[in-house]
Amino acid sequence: MAIESTLSIIKPDAVENNKIGAILNLIEEAGLKIRAMRMLKMNPEVAGGFYAVHKERPFFGELVEFMSRGPVVVSVLEGENAVAKYREIMGATNPAEAAEGTIRKLYASSIGENAVHGSDSLENAKIGIAYFFPESEIG
Ligand code: CMP
User: Fold this and answer.
1) Which residue has a Cα nearest atom 10 of ligand 1?
2) 111 lines ligand 1 (CB under 6 A)
3) Is 70 exceeded by the pLDDT of residue 20?
4) If you write DSSP's letter for every residue of 18-81 in order, what string do you get?
5) Per-residue confidence (pLDDT) for residue 66, from 0 to 100
């Protein structure tokens, strides 16, 4: 299997709830390597740019407001099959549908405030990593 890189964002709700360490622990326990990390607060333009693919969706405004309301932790995760592996440990987008033991089952409160983001494809991982780590050669 190929070694891949994927983008993780620990969202404002999880940062507010003091879950950065718990989430990073689940990531490392799953065997993913943290190759780069940055804590930052997005303004609405940055959040909207990252989620531009969703700009026609009815929840876009709510998503941008939420993602820019406080600090987030963005990181590059590396490992075998990292894109799919991280999505597996995140759990379903809606925490009500997330499997037991997943990050969203443990720490998310709703489909909007769902604790973490992870790239949904290798192509989007490359785009996301370049968005937050433009100077990095990782990815
Ligand atoms: P994420 O994986 O970061 O990608 C897009 C985000 O949009 C998603 O997680 C959710 O937080 C958010 N989202 C998806 N569907 C809805 C919805 N129906 N209402 C509010 N937010 C949503």
Assistant:
1) 112
2) yes
3) yes
4) T-HHHHHHHHHHTT-EEEEEEEE---HHHHHHHTGGGTTSTTHHHHHHHHTSS-EEEEEEEEET
5) 98
